[in-house]
Amino acid sequence: MDNSSFGVNHNTVNEPWILASQIWAGIIAVTGTLGNIMTITILVKNMNLSRMERTLPLLSFQSLIPLDGYHLLLLQLCVCDLLYCAVSLPITIYTYSYAYTENESPSEIFCNVAAYLRYSIAFLDWTSLALIAIQRCVDLQRSKGQHIFQPKITLVLILTIWVISFVPHMIYLFKDGLCIYDEESHKCDLKRDLRYIFYSLESLLPCVLIIFGYCSIFYRIWSRLRCLRKRGLSEEFINRRYKEMMRAVSLALALLLLFLICVVPICLYETVINVTEVPPGKYGIFFHMVYWSMYSLNVHLYSFRNKNFKEAYKNFIVGLITQEND
Questions:
Q1: Could you state, in order of their start, the residue ranges of all structural domains in the chain?
Q2: Are 173 and 116 in contact (CB under 8 A)?
Q3: Over the stretch 194-239, which tens digit does the pLDDT of each residue have?
Q4: CATH number of 15-321
Q5: How far is it, in rounded angstroms, from Cα 31 to Cα 36?
Q6: How far apart are CA 188 and CA 168, in angstroms?
Q7: For a surface tag, which of 230, 240, 283, 313 has the fewest beta carbons within 10 Å of its beta carbon?
Q8: 2-49 per-position pLDDT tens digit
């Protein structure tokens, strides 16, 4: 019997795991949506202040977050995380509810849209992380005026990855038979061979770019320190420069670690089960629960790993409280 079709008996239900995944997805959807909305608001507000400072340098207030390529990419990442939390996860929660029913499945049109959005947003998010890695590598130790990722260039790159992420995948919307309700995973998903292509080939591009970018960062830091030692500079000065460089890339490195923990395992897992044709079962649900966590945890990294972000969050919350009291 074909387990990947519409309107057939759901005989692989593992209700405790389905319920746990729905609860966890709901938690991530709520916390991720609120956290990303707050972070987007803070980024936009501070970058707008930064823009005003350039034209009105005598302003009495200062922006904590500059308008530059790096922070535009962080803003882009927040938008991607918000889309996944506010759109894809609620759809997943709804689709999982069909696991409790007999002889019922979501419509083909619904599954086409659900799969299209989930895979397009995921690819957009991963590619955004790749751009952050490349930006940190390229602009490390450059003065602000010499940055390759200037705001206008960065906006063009952001627009490009939106097109790359959403336009090619539109075939899922208009060609019949590419998306199905998968009884084994209880999700609207791509057919098995297309899932294999996505997780083993499409995901390879952002993964390679991310790993290459961060390896280049470490190489540049090591090369810079070696150059300083050859010049006979003191260890105290070299250590200070090392700490400055690591501080400049600490947030990006934290995002890399989260990517390795949440995204790489799900790509490997999906590739293996699509090659071996092993049913996903509860392990597939668990790996997806870990993967979803990334879309909420990213915003917490901003506040924990960056002093200016901490201050910006504090000012934002204090401002909200003050407005309520007034």
A1: 15-321
A2: yes
A3: 888 898 888 888 888 888 888 888 888 888 888 888 888 888 888 8
A4: 1.20.1070.10
A5: 8
A6: 19
A7: 230
A8: 444 444 444 445 778 889 999 999 999 999 999 999 899 988 888 776
